[in-house]
Amino acid sequence: MASVPARPGQSTTAEDTLARKSRDENIVSGGHLVAAALKNEGVDTIFTLCGGHIIDIYDGCIDNDIRIIDVRHEQTAAHAADGYARQTGGLGCVVTTAGPGFTNALTGIATAFRSESPVLHIGGQGALTQHKMGSLQDLPHVDIAAPITKFSASARSTERIADMIAMAARECFTGAPGPSYLEIPRDVLDAEVPLDKVVIPESGRYRASTKSIGDPADIETLADLLVQSERPAILLGTQVWTCRGHEAAIALLRGLNIPAYMNGASRGLLPPGDPHYFHRTRGDAFKEADVIIIVGTPFDFRMGYGKRLRADAAVVHIDMDYRTVGKNRDVALGLVGDPGAILQAVHDATTAVSNNGAKRREAWLKQLRELEKTKTEKLMPLFRSEASPIHPYRVAWELNEFLTEDTIYIGDGGDVVTISAQAVQPRAPGNWMDPGALGGLGVGTGFALASGLAHPDKEVLCYYGDGSFGMTAFDMETANRFGAPYIAVIGNNSAMNQIRYGQLSKYGEERGNVGNLLGDVPFSKFAEMLGGYGEEVRDCDEIAPALQRARDAVGSSGRSAVVNIWVDPNEWAPGTKRQTMYK
Questions:
Q1: In 76-172, at which residue ranges do the beta strands (DSSP E only) sit?
Q2: How far apart are the C-alpha atoms of 536 and 546, rounded to whole Å?
Q3: How many CB atoms within 10 Å of residue 323?
Q4: Residue 174: closest CA among 23, 418, 338
Q5: Disulfide check for 119: which of 92, 104, 188, 244 has CB 3.0–4.6 Å away?
Q6: CA atoms within a 13 Å half-sphere pointing along the CA-CB vector of 461
Q7: Where would I find the H helices in 354-496?
Q8: Tens-place pLDDT, residues 209-253
Q9: Which domains can be identified in the chain, with CATH numbers?
């Protein structure tokens, strides 16, 4: 039986902890088994919205010192569990009631699925004794969840609850991470069973190592490729941060003098100005590189399905999931395993070589650095635009200037994320969050809440489009209530503007503005309603002062602030104009 940490003055044995709320010290309820199993998985926080099917889990969490964060909408709960996993590197957990509680969370679970985020979704269900009778909120949850999870099952007996949670959690970390779903019928959850009939797998004693380097021969092959390479380039994707392999990646870059590009959660692994950090020349580098290493990101739409890498390049693909390597594009070499462990092993293999080519690659880095400078200078007129209405590129530039090493930046929107990615350069690892490959709107509030709870010493800033802000904004109250206030910045063009561009291009003015225009909403009033600071900005020179006033207000009041910036609705990102997301 596993040991479960207790609060001061309480027993430290799992038996006593689990039986604390029971009529008999030798029996335990299903809800307390859930909490004990979550504790063993390292879960210290659950995100939830209450419902009659799941309340015994709350009782168990109280006795196991698991923080309960109750939100106003289950979509936010699921996004917050995802965000918490991304920020802590551990297992995120969302708990929902049956029926609508479950379905409300599905967008968040689908986001975690496409973003490879380890989230355990525990859901309620009607009693087994009411199976197929039409009980309250009854739905085939397990079947619905199966296509967007790595594991989807129902706990059919109270004795098996802890074991089933361990099974679901294990699947979350098998290969590339992802979400799992476990349904627990109400009578199974509420039942009490003898402790001697329960199995709780002990934390750390039933896991295989995930730090595999794959085939050692492939490590040597890649090391030889890099040593001989004249013009290598590497793209570090989300998995590098997910597995916390960034230090190994950085050591390889520095040791072999390789230019690096970053996408997804790996943005910020190197700070702006680092000699190996490149931001604007990825396409140029890939056109000329003799070896291209893609680490922890798939050949999906963001990579042009691999077509943006020239056919004759030696492409190396490293990923945690075998199914991803070489999908959509042939590769010269594929390695499956932990990205950090693989990059460390490759670096170790090159240290024995007296001449690893680092010096001769200085000209290659200089060439790319000069091109970076040229491209930045070309963008500066947009970044420093004095236009009225405010140019969205100016907002992105001001946000980048505002960031500190302790600011977690979250992008929630369409063009908002696309444009800000051209300007915003996070200053430290883990300081960038975005919707990921699913491209869903509304992630920002849950991500901000989770980030503030995971890192109370950091500043959290979420840049929303006005469409995305309207989806989940009411859980800003939740962030305030739990002491995780943040700065919300809204690029307000009163439209779902990324989609609007495609409609205008296809159907013209008369029909292009259908189904995508929103009202002119002074969102600053929303923050004020919740006791926080709000400001409307219509002059580009007021952006920086407004952001500073918001920062000061959050620090002094402990309430979230909203800076509502009115931007030009007739400006779009280049990718939106080319509709690259559909190509």
A1: 92-96, 119-125, 151-154
A2: 9
A3: 11
A4: 338
A5: 92
A6: 28
A7: 362-383, 392-402, 415-423, 444-454, 466-472, 476-481
A8: 889 999 999 999 999 999 999 999 999 999 999 999 999 999 999
A9: 14-197 (3.40.50.970), 216-369 (3.40.50.1220), 384-582 (3.40.50.970)
